Amino acid sequence: EVQLVESGGGLVQPGGSLRLSCSASGFPFSTYSMHWVRQAPGKGLEYVSTVNTNGGSTYYADSVKDRFTISRDNSKNTLYLQMSSLRTEDTAVYYCVNIYIRVVYWGPGTLVTVAS
Amino acid sequence: EVVMTQSPATLSVSPGERATLSCRASQSVSSDLAWYQQKPGQAPRLLIYDASTRATGIPARFSGSGSGTEFTLTISSLQSEDFAVYYCQQYNNWPPLTFGGGTKVEIK
């Protein structure tokens, strides 16, 4: 059974940093690209970032480019999102997403609140 | 980037009635289309993948159809627990993954 579990969310001041993690199991993690998606309070789903299988290729939404860094550790089956220069508009639930054998799997999400 | 457009934004339906939700892609996404249900405070719940395959545990009253650029989610007889927001997502041409803006199904 595929399981994705995010952690690392919390309250951070504007301009601060936070690192999210996503622990994955139930599929061959190192052979699948991974994604982050977020949802601000009362808003729709917003794509954040993608990393390929070996971490050598990354992609970011314009809204987070140059501030967020996606990475992975295939030895630990873990996906990361390093967030810096955080803004109030980054407040959202962040989800880890994987597409495995054509089924889209999501974690339960972790809440990031950017406020002073 | 593939732009996904859902309609209507809000759908008012009486319990027991049929609900039809639409999702359009700006270019063909083949059948690489998923539908989700989301309730307040919860993560999106996968209902349909591959445009028409129900996910594990999803009741038969939910059905998906379409391919290419036009897709439909049908709820045959709305139950009280079905009132929620529904999203479509394409996973044919990524990155980025892209989502529709959502359809809120509310009680009429």
Summary of the model, kept short:
The complex is a heterodimer of chains A (116) and B (108). Chain A is mainly β.
Description of the structure:
The complex is a heterodimer of chains A (116) and B (108). With 116 residues, chain A is mainly beta. Chain A has no helices and 11 strands. Chain B has 108 residues and is mostly beta strands. The radius of gyration of chain B is 13 Å and the shape is globular.
Number of strands of chain A: 11
Poorly predicted regions of chain B = none
- Gross morphology of chain B is globular
* Largest interface: chains, residues each: A-B, 22 and 20 residues
Q: Strands, helices and their partners?
A:
The complex is a heterodimer of chains A (about 120) and B (about 110).
Chain A (H helix, E strand, L loop, with lengths): L2 E5 L2 E3 L5 E8 L8 E6 L5 E7 L6 E3 L7 E6 L4 E6 L8 E9 L2 E4 L3 E5 L2
Parallel strand pairs in A: 2-11
Antiparallel strand pairs in A: 1-3, 3-8, 4-5, 4-9, 5-6, 7-8, 9-10, 9-11
Chain B lengths: L3 E4 L2 E4 L5 E7 L7 E6 L6 E5 L3 E2 L7 E6 L2 E6 L9 E6 L7 E2 L3 E5 L1
Key terms:
heterodimer; A: 116 residues; mainly beta; 11 strands; B: 108 residues; 7-stranded mixed β-sheet; 4-stranded antiparallel β-sheet; globular
